[in-house]
Recover the amino acids of this structure.
């Protein structure tokens, strides 16, 4: 359908699949297509890891302690509603146009989201099972390993899935504003040249990679974490 | 070995008193049934004894040694197999020991099932095997046969008696079922009133062996708990 519409419109602003494929081959031959893709993926991985670790810890703390939740709830709401662009600009202004600033800006945008989901998970944890663990004197480590982590696994999976989608979008903005490489940087360059075919070549390539991560990594992990269900 | 000593002067939920002036002692190895209608406070009292709730007036002294509890819902970890649930109850419980305990409650073939794939009766029996895994000095059971059909109930009750015989532990079983109480306990502690108090404390005049006879139990039940006319 894309090819039909593109042929009908016959404009550089809506290139067909063949034109995008050619642009893709040119980028591989002339520009460092996979290098840019790798740079973006590295930023996504770094920001995603930091956000999941920090956001997860905050969510568990808030969900597990009512007083902490009351004290920090307003801050969580504030960061949830802070526009991504503001965080990115402030990080670049305060920390310079560095890799650390870029990853920090993306992570800050994702942390409140992870914290919110994990907080719900902690609140939904079974009091019955916690009592059972108390009666049978589970050690703190056994409690975490056999009770808390399996209970939080579905929430962690939801946060991860949701997080990946958010993180890679913000990474492109961060690259567009202040990095010398990456898919976001290349999109900015080709936007200035009005080269829609190359823009689509990068966008589709990146979507394929993200889908592969979802299908090959997140799906099997989620299936494994919930295989005990009837 | 000393048994269980309970002296609860008051227990409230918010401003509502639920338990008052409940005092009794169980000798080591003694089996008592805590009877009374649903909602009277039997589970609450078991929670106090188990140490799950410390907000009450009075004092409870448990026998030294491990505590085991068979909850009203089996409370098995759904993401672990039945055998794994049993090994987790005690650090010294090996997989082999867990399988032997499951065998003892008739679940040898179900050791690798996850709880959600087992029936409620099987889950209850697994919970009883878990109680044995800690070699308890005190076992608390909360309505262990509730929500089971007649066949499953009879089977789980037989397992329960066997588990109690094997453990030799002091045992307190909360139940609203008089017949069940007479079948497994040496003594009946009855809660009544509001807030709930101990309204009767009766020792069964039959030996454990004599109680195996359903007619003897039926006679005793008819005398102690006559059906309302």
């Amino acid at each position: 359908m894309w090819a039909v519409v593109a042929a009908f419109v016959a404009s550089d602003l809506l290139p067909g699949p063949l034109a995008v494929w050619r642009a893709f081959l040119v980028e591989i031959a002339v520009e460092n297509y996979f290098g840019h893709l790798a740079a973006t993926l590295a930023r996504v991985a770094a920001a995603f890891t930091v956000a999941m670790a920090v956001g997860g810890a905050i969510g568990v703390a808030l969900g597990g302690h009512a007083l902490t939740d009351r004290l920090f709830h307003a801050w969580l709401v504030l960061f949830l509603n802070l526009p991504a662009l503001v965080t990115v600009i402030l990080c670049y202004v305060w920390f310079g146009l560095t890799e650390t600033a870029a990853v920090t800006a993306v992570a800050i945008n994702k942390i409140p989201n992870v914290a919110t989901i994990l907080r719900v998970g902690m609140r939904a944890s079974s009091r019955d099972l916690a009592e059972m663990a108390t009666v049978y004197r589970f050690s703190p480590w056994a409690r975490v390993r056999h009770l808390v982590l399996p209970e939080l696994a579905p929430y962690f999976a939801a946060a991860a899935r949701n997080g990946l989608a958010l993180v890679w979008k913000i990474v492109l903005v961060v690259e567009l504003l202040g990095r010398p490489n990456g898919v976001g940087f290349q999109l900015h360059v080709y936007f200035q040249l009005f080269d829609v075919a190359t823009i689509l070549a990068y966008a589709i390539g990146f979507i394929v990679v993200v889908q592969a991560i979802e299908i090959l990594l997140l799906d099997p992990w989620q299936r494994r974490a919930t295989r005990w269900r009837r | 070995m000393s048994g269980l000593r309970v002296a609860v002067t008051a227990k409230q939920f918010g401003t509502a008193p639920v338990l008052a002036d409940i005092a009794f002692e169980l000798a080591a190895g003694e089996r008592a049934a805590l009877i009374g209608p649903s909602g009277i406070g039997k589970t609450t009292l078991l929670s106090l004894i188990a140490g799950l709730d410390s907000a009450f007036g009075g004092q409870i002294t448990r026998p030294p040694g491990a505590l085991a509890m068979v909850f009203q819902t089996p409370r098995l970890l759904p993401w672990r197999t039945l055998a794994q649930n049993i090994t987790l109850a005690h650090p010294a419980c090996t997989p082999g020991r867990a399988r032997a305990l499951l065998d003892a409650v008739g679940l040898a073939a179900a050791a690798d099932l996850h709880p959600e794939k087992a029936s409620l009766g099987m889950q209850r029996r697994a919970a009883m095997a878990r109680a044995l895994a800690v070699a308890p000095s005190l076992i608390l059971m909360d309505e262990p046969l509730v929500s089971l059909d007649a066949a499953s109930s009879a089977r789980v009750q037989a397992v329960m008696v066997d588990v109690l015989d094997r453990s030799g532990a002091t045992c307190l079983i909360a139940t609203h079922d008089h017949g069940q109480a007479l079948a497994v306990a040496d003594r009946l502690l009855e809660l009544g009133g509001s807030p709930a108090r101990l309204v009767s404390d009766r020792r069964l005049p039959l030996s454990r062996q004599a109680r195996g006879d359903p007619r003897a139990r039926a006679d005793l039940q008819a005398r102690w708990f006559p059906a309302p006319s």
